[in-house]
Amino acid sequence: MSDPAHPNMPSEPSGTRLVATLAAAGLFSGLAIVGIYVATLPIIEANNARALERAVFQVVPGSTRMQGLLLDNGELHAAGSGDAPGVYAAYDDAGTFIGYAIPADGPGFQDTIRLIYGYDPAKRQIIGMQILESRETPGLGDKIYKDHDFAANFDALSVDPEVVCVKHGKKTSDNEIDAITGATISSKAVTAIIRSTNARWIDELPGPDGVPPLEEGDAP
Amino acid sequence: MTGAQSHYEEFSKGIWRENPIFVQVLGMCPMLAVTNSAINGVAMGAATTFVLVGSSLLVSLLKDFIPKQVRISTYIIIIATFVTVADFSLKAMAPALHKELGAFISLIVVNCIILGRQEAFASKNTVRMAVADAVGMAVGFTIALVLLGSLREILGSGSLFGVSLFGPHFEPWVIMILPPGGFIMLGLMLLVFASIREQREKLGERLAAEEGAA
Asked: Least CB-CB distance to A138: which of B74, B99, B177?
């Protein structure tokens, strides 16, 4: 095919050509990445909001409406659309306050555990807990969200004097959490996260009378 | 006729003869890390297929415009773009799966199967050949991931695609869904695969010898 007298030797490309090639690749890549980011952002945000809503309604049984709350100088008020709320207040259909949903996180056995729990200030009890994110050992530590008996610990858990973790089957009073056999570290981690978050929030959260009323237009 | 045949040839070699996992033993990081369930294998396989086919298509289309001095950087830019697209799309369409696969979607960028195919094949072949090769390699990779994921899920969780198989009395082999289980199971699979290949080769030799004798 190629003529032996004129071997097919392409001349070496110039430096400008090399830079131009990479710059063009970068430009198109940038456009594509920003395009997909902008296109998927609203869907991803809606997914996250829906997931949060589902979690709040689950940890505060009976609730169907919620709003984010911010703590400002010891005073709770409804969070605007731009702020990241600290806790959530959950209400029933009629807008009657049921309980707070408190997000929390802390170190687990492998990685940060993120969870959310429901708190009823009238009873001073935790009324539900859900693990949002964790990388605990499959088959052992992951029982913190797969084991229904462990989850049942948080259906009516007194916060006074504070929540403590006890060995499996040794639970005697209602501020104690029955640990999972084989997942003691993960059980203790969940307990420690809730204990420290309680210390931060419980005294700041007013009873049912002091909760900011549900702002209209917040209905799902 | 020969054209169609060689397209098929390029496609099928990735599935058996040059399977990226069982023969080339490439891409071990995603292979071992995400295959603790069958569905994770499917998702990882699908994301890798998208990136590999897209990148091979673009690289073979652009091969005459990319000077060889900057080819690696250009391939990486192309691959990274497809990975970002796959990452955001999966996050929007299947948030639960995306959470499960975590960082391993982004790590497709450094999957050596993908850059390997660009350098070894797509940059030297026509678009149709490159796509046939990429699809074949991707399917071969996906089959391996799903196979390993299924076996580990069956033994380690007693279920397949989340459907419980053995009832409540099955005691799962937890080790199978932990990292060591991935190594053990992959080793066993490589063993089986290699012995099948060996037997087929022996059979081929015997047939050829018999033919020569006749």
From this structure: B177
Neighbours of B182 (CB within 10 A): 23
Query: What mean pLDDT do residues A161-173 have?
Result: 83
SS3 label, residue B65: coil
| Residues in Cβ contact with B39 at an 8 Å cutoff, skipping those fewer than 6 apart | B97, B149, B161, B162
- The whole-number pLDDT of residue B20 equals 86
For chain A, the structural domain boundaries read 48-210
For residue B95, give the chain A residue with the closest CA.
A47
Do the chains contact at A29 and B89, CB–CB below 8 Å? Answer: no
Token representation of residue A7:
């071997």
- Give the number of domains in chain B: 1
pLDDT score recorded for residue A27: 96
Taking contacts as CB-CB distances below 8 angstroms, the residues of chain A near B99 are 133
Q: How far is CA B101 from CA A137, A164, B45, B96, B213, in A?
A: 15, 33, 11, 9, 56
Reduce the secondary structure of B99-157 to three states and give it as a string: HHHHHHCHHHHHCHHHHHHHHHCHHHCCHHHHHHHHHHHHHHHHHHHHHHHHHHHHHHH
Minimum mean pLDDT range among B136-145, B156-165, B181-190 = B156-165
* Crossing angle of helices B127-157 and B179-213, rounded to 10°: 120
Q: Do the Cβ atoms of A18 and B84 come within 8 Å?
A: no
CB contact under 8 Å between A32 and B81, yes or no, is yes
Contact map slice: B 149-168 vs A, CB within 8 A: 156
Residues 10 through 49 of chain B touching chain A, CB cutoff 8 Å: 36
Nearest CA-CA partner of A89 in A81, A100, A80: A100
* Closest in A25, A135, A138 to B36, CB measured: A138
pLDDT higher than threshold 90 for residue A36 = yes
User: How far away is chain A from the Cα of B158, in angstroms, using its nearest Cα?
Assistant: 12
Comparing A32 with A135, the larger pLDDT belongs to: A32
Dihedral over alpha carbons B17, B22, B28, B33 (to 10 degrees): 130
The domain in which residue B162 lies consists of 2-213
- For residue B146, what are its two tokens? 């799903």
What ipTM goes with this model?
Answer: 0.80
Pairing between β-strand B159-160 and β-strand A176-178 as defined by DSSP bridges: unpaired
Residue A24's pLDDT band, with cuts at 50, 70 and 90, is very high
Note whether B74 and A21 are within 8 A (CB).
yes
CB contacts of A33 in chain B (<8 Å) are 81, 84-85
